[in-house]
Amino acid sequence: MDYIGKSVIRQEAWDKVSGKAKYTADDSSPGILHAKLVVSPYAHARIKSIKTEKASHVFGVRAVLAGERFPLTGEEIRDRPPLATERVRYHGEAVALVVADTPHLAKKAADLIEIEYEPLPVVNNPTEALKKDAPLVHEQLGTYQKEERVYPVPGTNIANQTKIRKGNMEKGWAESEVTVEEYFSFSPSDHAAMETRCSMCEIRSNGDVVITSSSQAPFMIKRLIHEYFEVDIGKVIVETPFVGGGYGGKASIQLELLAYLACKAAGGRKVKLLNSREEDILTSPVHIGLDARVRLGSTEEGEIKAAELLFLFDGGAYSDKAADLSKAAAADCTGPYDIDNVWCNSLCMYTNHPYAAPFRGFSHSELLFAIERTMDSLAEKLGMDRLLLRYKNAIKPGDTTPTQVPLNKSNVGNLPACIRRLKEIIDWDEGVAKDIGNNKIRAKGVSCIWKTSTIESDAGSGVILTFNPDGSINLMSGIIEIGTGTKTVLAQILAERMKMEISQIHVQMEVNTQSTPEHWKTVASRGTFLAGRAVLEAAEDVIRQLKNIASCVLRAKASDLTVAFGKVFLRDDPSIGIDVKDIAYGYTFPNGNAIGGQIIGRGHYNLRHLTHMNKETGAGKPGPEWSVGAQAVEVEFDKRDLTYRIIRAVSVVDIGTVLNEMAAKGQVMGAMSMGLSFGSRETFKFDEFGRVMNSQLRTYRPIRYSEHPDYVVDFVVTPQVDAAYGARGAGEHGILGMPAALGNALSIAAGVKLNELPLTPELIWRVKKKEGFSDAFI
Amino acid sequence: MTAERSLSAVLNVNDEERAVHLKPTDTLLFVLREKLGLSGAKPGCLNGDCGACTVNIDGLAMKSCLMLAVESLNKKITTIEGLKGTPIQQAFVEHFAFQCGYCTPGFIMNCHAMLNTVPDANDDTIAEWLNSNICRCTGYQEIEGAVRSIVKKNQMNRKRP
Amino acid sequence: MLSFDFDYYQPKSIEEAVQLYHALDREEKHPLYYSGGTEIITLGRLDLVYTNAVIDIKAIPECEVLGTQEGYFVTGSGLTLTAIEENNGFPLLSKAASGVADHTARNKITVGGNICGQIFYREAVLPFLLTDSKIVAAGMNGVRTEHIMSLFNKTLRLKKGELLVQLQTEKRYLNVPYRCVKKRPQWDTGYPLVTIAAIKAEEGIRVAFSGVSPFPFRSREMEKALNENGRIKERILASLQHLPKPVLDDVEGSSEYRLFVLKNTLFDILRELEEDHR
């Protein structure tokens, strides 16, 4: 049995190509009620009145919710009413909700709710938000309940601030012979998962609250419904079938709260709340925006001595996970470089924009855009090869991170090896730019990446294994199958450890918080690490139990036995043994005596030795390990009309041992695609009133088939000692350097500094025009 | 306010005659999912933008959110549930051409229509057709691999005497 | 999901359709002719279209004609854009049609729907504007045939209840040199910044535009300037004086950037068409 590294086809593959895979909204059993939201057309306004009478009288309407104050919600700061009451703070915010017999009737009634608003001045970006005279998004900020380690500043729009103070900045600048400073800016955008979010809720007669939701965090739903609405935690049961893409957006708890309130208002009947695409883009949480300033100082030889960073994240109207995103960015603020003197202020700003959810990479593709563009500026100023500058400063075992974590051979990957490999793949020595005639230039941009996962310091995962009478095993894990194939990888880990056929492992795909052991959240590329360790522990547990029973039957010490190939046998004489199937449910002796019973294994794994970051210096260990990589993008740029194509995109990542090669490549490629789409075309377009002008997929346009470049994915393998078979996370890394590498390639090709996203031809034209580009068209 | 009106109709879906009550305003997508229990076609935008709801109507790829159910009377409707182990499904599995699987039925139905219409589709044709769907998980390269593998097989079969 | 209800009619003849329209109108059903129906469904969902009766025209034989009849290439209004592309009897029309939405959507979107719809790009009209095609419209007083340039001003100015049945294009225009270029904000998908269609007719180059303004248009003044003697660049600049103002400024692009793209695109088109001529 050799399953590690094999491209094992995902367990649910045939269900997914035959339409049988069930997602939340696929449940259309009779009797379900349908909820419809009414959302704010303003980004910031006082609600003067809400009239619901006409809506209540529509045939088939079972409940109307509006104007009622519910407990404030929010993961870090309780600043968000599930339905706005006195005030709306972003375009698309939910204000009212109708429950009716059919979606058609719910919509009909929702259209009849009359809401009168009085518009207020808007905060339309995080830089504006920081100004002294900016309107306050939350006047009551000081009164909100909050988590202990969040640091809002009442009387301002600062929802959280994280400081990094490492080394001595004065010394750093004194040692710097060359300095560069750059400013960056990009607006919020969207996850645009193909499945819009959907939640269903039913309250049973015994008070059980049963929620089905397209979520990456069913156990968090359970916890928060309990905390917000004071339902006994054991009475909250959350089910999650397949999820049609998450990318972090479904790790926030939002629609579930509304489904619960709708259900309660409808007397506990089952209510389905399915986002329209417009609501999914506007109302549900989004991908964070950022304004940033980066200063780097280095010696003439290119040794970076000082880094000073200011991040102003556009957290939107409510802090929820944005507060945490801004902290994660601070923790890895320098990018993957060994810098002794670091000063960073990372602020999460309130604005009148849709609020932020986690997004693949958890603020890293964002901060790396700023850092890696500045690295290119520095290389240019030094007259130094761009990869060489990165190679010289690359983070290595023995260095420390911005939060002063000492790195060793296990907790950081091999960045220099990634850079060397990338250099070969992209034929770096041929030069960064080449004029290919016909007004066209080919240019290559590079970026290095790193990321740790600043997840909760006690995050954990559990696994249960049960045997079937034929010796096959059921594997239950709280991981959500959001497309990453993690559940198939868990089966590979189990098959490898048990030395059994993978076809004999049955993975339960859906999660039910009542019967599935908890997995913290399916986020942060932590699934394989946490659940993988739990699988191994559970495997040890069943092996021990199998050996114990077999030792009675075979009259041998358990320590003399081995489990493999569906048998338990004597290590020194495999001919003496017993089939697992004959003891999986206990063993019955010929005389009728029976011992044992169904074998049930359990395992769990919790993160260890993580510490909180110090409020004043940021010192602390925020994550278990740092994955690294090096990426490149090659573009073909038209000097005349300023359009371009992406020809090739390359990733060399160190994800430790590769457990399933094609699945891992798919993860990296998919993340690269998302990063290029974000970098090249995705953004919310806000008008001066803070309204999102492109809330449909025909105006908010993810990359499509014919627009994809050639992808090259390669791996450097530095096993993580404490991970299952040495595997590091792989779900996010592909995205991290893509916007930056694209920005670097285009800046080279266009001959101007492109420090905004998305990198559209219009942006390039605007920047070039400022620098005197004449649009003479010959 | 009055109750909703509906009419009785028979739809030919996946080679079965299916009796159904529908309203003229019901889209085909709605009827397939909510009235016929065929949830393979997925709602992604209800706006004709994403392609997740693609089915075949008389062999043509069709976004079922852009079609009224009444328009499909007397036509042959094929949904993903009507495809059983076709080469393109097999190719999607082998090429890891999906992850979350939500866009997959739509992609496969579009590919299925294309491969029946243009079995030896060239790269431009493939691009033109497949630009009708959005996949948010893969890099599209995997889907390209799956489709090309079938085109290649078709071309080889054709060359053989 | 629509919040209103409508009845669905599928008349078999022009007369039946027109009479239905007027009868339903008298009943205040706000009837709409329904061809591909994509805009009625999608804009209806957003409450931007309202009707209580749709009249599907796809069973009317005259609306499904595609081919040459007595010196004209006839395009039935109920034909889907992909049907037109595949037929390719009018290559410029095929090209213009192929830029609309996406391939699958074009299996549903019809030429009549595209021209008469609310979404203002209406790129399928450009070839007909360039070729002085004729509009065949049916109303209570029977069928009339008019020059498109007299009926199309930003939108097709049909009388209330009139049905666009066909478009007729003189055969001599089918094979003239042409260009149709759609420039988008980024790459291959999405709405246009500008779409320019052009033909090289006997008297000179004709051009029509979509995306430059919130309506498609063909400008004789611009054509006149473009067909003067002189360098292409100067002719283009002169022609721009006659652009309808203001140039569109929206989420797809600023007006200034649109002008930049317009100039480049027009330059390429003119150069190629003029080279074709030589």
From TrEMBL, chain A:
Record InterPro entries: Ald_Oxase/Xan_DH_a/b, Ald_Oxase/Xan_DH_a/b_sf, Ald_Oxase/xanthine_DH-like, AldOxase/xan_DH_MoCoBD1, AldOxase/xan_DH_MoCoBD2, AldOxase/xan_DH_Mopterin-bd_sf
SUPFAM superfamilies in alphabetical order: CO dehydrogenase molybdoprotein N-domain-like, Molybdenum cofactor-binding domain
Claim: Repeat is one of the keywords in the record: no
Record-annotated Aldehyde oxidase/xanthine dehydrogenase a/b hammerhead domain positions: 18-121
Regions that span the bilayer: none
Signal peptide feature range: none
Keywords on record: Molybdenum, Oxidoreductase
Protein known as: Xanthine dehydrogenase family protein molybdopterin-binding subunit
Source organism (scientific name): Fictibacillus terranigra
UniProtKB/TrEMBL annotation, chain B:
Domain (2Fe-2S ferredoxin-type) ranges: 7-83
Keyword Oxidoreductase: yes
Entry keyword Transcription: no
InterPro entries the record matches: 2Fe-2S-bd (IPR002888), 2Fe-2S-bd_dom_sf (IPR036884), 2Fe-2S_ferredoxin-like_sf (IPR036010), 2Fe-2S_ferredoxin-type (IPR001041), 2Fe2S_fd_BS (IPR006058), Beta-grasp_dom_sf (IPR012675), Diverse_Oxidoreductases (IPR051452)
Top-rank taxon, per record: Bacteria
Keywords associated with the record: 2Fe-2S, Iron, Iron-sulfur, Metal-binding, Oxidoreductase
UniProt protein name: (2Fe-2S)-binding protein
UniProt organism field: Fictibacillus terranigra
From TrEMBL, chain C:
Keyword set includes Protease: no
Organism name: Fictibacillus terranigra
SUPFAM superfamilies listed in its UniProt record: CO dehydrogenase flavoprotein C-terminal domain-like (SSF55447), FAD-binding/transporter-associated domain-like (SSF56176)
Residue ranges of domain FAD-binding PCMH-type in the record: 1-174
Record bears the keyword Flavoprotein: yes
Keywords linked to the UniProt accession: FAD, Flavoprotein, Oxidoreductase
InterPro entries (UniProt xref): CO_DH_flav_C, CO_DH_flav_C_dom_sf, Diverse_Substr_Oxidored, FAD-bd_PCMH, FAD-bd_PCMH-like_sf, FAD-bd_PCMH_sub1, FAD-bd_PCMH_sub2, Mopterin_DH_FAD-bd
Name of the protein in its database record: FAD binding domain-containing protein
PANTHER family associated with the record: XANTHINE DEHYDROGENASE SUBUNIT C-RELATED
